[in-house]
């Protein structure tokens, strides 16, 4: 995502990140703050090496289940789901068709705030998003 943030710097394009601990308990740290565990983990563990995200990070949230954030209810309802197979290590219930199936699933919204695309967790190459981003920027 940093590569996209750098490539589209100066454009009307923003990347938002929402840490979530519902997938294999991979984000156990405390919420964002001046010296928090989530940011410490990003900088020093995954991906590590002093990594600084070039996106706006929000507090930890739940993206699935009974107490999911309404933003993700909206996003999931607006875009076709990307997977039909549930992984082990899901830390929420109930499981529903259309759930986000693992961390790093992505949504692309237009300037009007309407969801336009949803990308599977394995779709991580920044080049895969540029045509869709360009189309929305030029709309």
Automatic annotation (TrEMBL):
<dbReference type="Pfam" id="PF00255">
    <property type="entry name" value="GSHPx"/>
</dbReference>
<dbReference type="GO" id="GO:0006979">
    <property type="term" value="P:response to oxidative stress"/>
</dbReference>
<comment type="similarity">
    <text>Belongs to the glutathione peroxidase family.</text>
</comment>
<keyword id="KW-0560">Oxidoreductase</keyword>
<dbReference type="GO" id="GO:0004602">
    <property type="term" value="F:glutathione peroxidase activity"/>
</dbReference>
<dbReference type="InterPro" id="IPR036249">
    <property type="entry name" value="Thioredoxin-like_sf"/>
</dbReference>
<keyword id="KW-0575">Peroxidase</keyword>
<dbReference type="InterPro" id="IPR029760">
    <property type="entry name" value="GPX_CS"/>
</dbReference>
<protein>
    <recommendedName>
        <fullName>Glutathione peroxidase</fullName>
    </recommendedName>
</protein>
<dbReference type="InterPro" id="IPR000889">
    <property type="entry name" value="Glutathione_peroxidase"/>
</dbReference>
